[in-house]
Amino acid sequence: MAIKFLPKRTRSLRRTYHKLTILLIAALLIYLWIHLSESRRASDAKRTPHHDVADKPRFLYHSRFRDHPDYDYEATIDTALRAVEERAMSETKGTIEAKERIWQIRLDEEGPGEDVERGDDSSDFEFMNDEWEYELITKTTAIKFIKDTFSSIPDLLHTYNTYPYDVLRADLLRYLILWYYGGYYADMDIYPARSIKGCPSMKPLFQSMSKAKPTVSLVLGVEIDEPYASPQLLREWKWTRSYQFIQYNIYAPRRFSPLLRRAIVRTLAHTKQHNERNSFFSRGKYTQNSVLEISGPGMFTDAILDTLSETLRRTHPLITTSVEKDKDVGELGPESKVGSWKRITWAPFHNLQDSLWIDASDAEDMGGLGVLPVRVWGNGQRHSGAGTFKAKEACVNHRFGGTWKKTWWEWAFG
């Protein structure tokens, strides 16, 4: 039987093909190895770091977005929002109490919210609070709400439409909705450990009319409370600051909270500043840290503390506590330093064990604020004394999906 030999050209092509295949496989393995290492590093970051603490706490964080604020622009936005409030109040004859309504946001969906298929957490949240109205805001209904309600606010619609990520839009949108309508906002990945009215820490808000019922326009929870965190611990947790309020779960018992108005103003102002600082080609680039300080909990926390500092009397317990706790720290600076002396820092909110109520009557144009201990809404974290999802104080459990922070490996493989 004669042996047939492949033509020389065919054998050469096969060898070339085999080499290319081996090179491609090797390149793929190297690529996967590199990104698997990144994923492992990301996974390591999720493990609880060694609790390394500093000698002195940090009760005051200064965001770079407040280095050179455009006060004229902020005043313009604030004035325009007040005009919207005045028109709305005249139409409702001054009614400021908010309806019992739950708000959630899904900007990856279009059309009416009632047609959107939701996850179990969202459905359970509505079911457990069935006496409350429920409304899901989608991409379509969000645009309509902004056009119908805020057409007079400079830059708002343009800013909203030109954001590169939905997380920025969702941040701004929750402030707008709760400011204009009031109600209860919760992210889609929040599970109701208790009903809203069944939450022990919020009981004072739902008791019958009495002198003990606090008058507040906003209720917040604590998310991060680690003022003694060392620089090393901050790096391991990938934090820019060692304290902040929650903004994935917010309750506004009253419409037109001045605290939320400040959050809206700051979001637009910080966005404008971010765009002006960057070139045309890098304008759309937002890092995780910049998002947190432009529209997220970093900006939100500062907006709250700054508003309280500007409106409460100098002898208010929150301010005197802040000044007292600063004596051995020195973050407030000398008494002669404008804008720092006798202001509110994080000190009064550190290691909070009971709900703290700051009544609207304590200051003009502040609206009143309630702050809940970390275990109420911030449980399930591995820091700040948050406790587990099963903590007896727990009223909601946040799954911390953080889809906007995921690496490609986490998207693909979890």
TrEMBL record:
Q: Which GO terms describe its biological process?
A: protein N-linked glycosylation
Keywords assigned: Membrane, Transmembrane, Transmembrane helix
One GO location term (cellular component): mannan polymerase complex
Recorded superkingdom? Eukaryota
Q: Which GO terms describe its molecular function?
A: alpha-1,6-mannosyltransferase activity
Q: Which residues form a coiled coil?
A: none
Span-the-membrane segments of this chain are 20-36
Give the record's family classification.
Answer: Belongs to the glycosyltransferase 32 family.
- Which protein are we looking at? Glycosyltransferase family 32 protein
Species, as recorded: Aspergillus sclerotialis
The organism that produces this protein has a lineage beginning with: Eukaryota, Fungi, Dikarya, Ascomycota, Pezizomycotina
